[in-house]
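S., here's the first fold you wanted:
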Amino acid sequence: MDIKTIIAVLNSESFPFPLEEIERIMDAELEKDPAEMDDELVDLCMDVLEKGYVKQKQNREQTEKKHRRIKLRRVLVAAAIIALIIVIAVPIAAAYTRGEVSDKIVQFYSDYFHINLREGDTNANHYSDENSDLIQELQKRGVSDVILPSDLLNYDYSKDIFIQEGDNYTSATITIEDSESKIHGGIVITQYDEIISSATGAGQVSPEFNRIEQININGLDVIIFGNEDKVAMRYLDNNTDYYITLDNCDIYKAVEIANSLK
């Protein structure tokens, strides 16, 4: 996926990137030589992150310090993001509707809930059919041993799969859509090195999601959460973290889709 395509996707609301993915995109751009950086992409990432954190009203207790030799303007951009994460905190009372959810995996707070998938089952019994077009496309890009809900493997997907590589991870982002149901969204698969595997599968979920469910299938604990507008599901297989977002889909349909993770 080239820079123009990434910018077009970020400008579109049809596929909301997880904020962590947008941070990775911006970080990768900031690491480039100043002459090679794309100012528009950096500015757009900052804008999307600002809107995202304002909407989510999240607190982060710790923020990684960034030490990069870049122009002052880029340093200020990164500093602004860090400051934004720290200072935006407007507590609200969240009313959650939930099914049987393990208190080892999910902890509820007044204005968010926290997920730690490492406290659940994280070893898939088997992986997705390698005859699937999407699975083959991912394998071509170096992403193997993938397990996705079989229902989603029947969706249309963009072959402009965005691959990002860092020192300790490889991430693949795929946009998907079902022409019949009009459900659309995206899949983010992040495979981490064992050296940082203990940090995977954890994170806060904002109060915009007020419904949460949990299922156990194929050796994995899957957390599904959503609201009236969109749903998401997250699960962890060893050192591979999965984050799936679906628009035009309710929580019941999302649970049905998650149950096809066979």
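And the second, which I think is the more interesting of the pair:
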Amino acid sequence: MLALVATTSVAHARDTDLYDRLWPEPPISARLSLSQQLLEQLTVLGNTVGFHMNQLSADVISFEVDARARTARFRVGGGDARYLTFELAGDVEFVAGEARISPEIVVGIAGRTLRVELPEVDMVPASYRGERGVEIRIPIFRRTF
């Protein structure tokens, strides 16, 4: 009986060593939470889509995402700097279920540029009689309490 008890504990210790060697644990401090992993994957996905849009449109459309900061940057436009350029660009910030866009228009003629900052625009999802859409809000003035 004594021999049986002594051999089972040694076999169990050998199995544990084998598992530790084959599947080591990563350091606990380097692990990301599930929400951080999702944010990283959303950032990679958004930037991959933006990269391909940029390539397919010959630098006319640009899109960058930072999911951790809940921001994005878009740009639509192009032209030749010697003659005429037009660009609509903006920063998008996602706050409380709405997208706050800070757009600007850049027009260039013969190397001279004019930059016009437009007022912020809020976009929120909306539905009317079962049809889904987007509600665009252009605030005349903004107050906070």
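Why I say that: The first strand starts at residue 61 and ends at 66. DSSP finds two helices and seven strands in the chain.

Talk tomorrow,
H.
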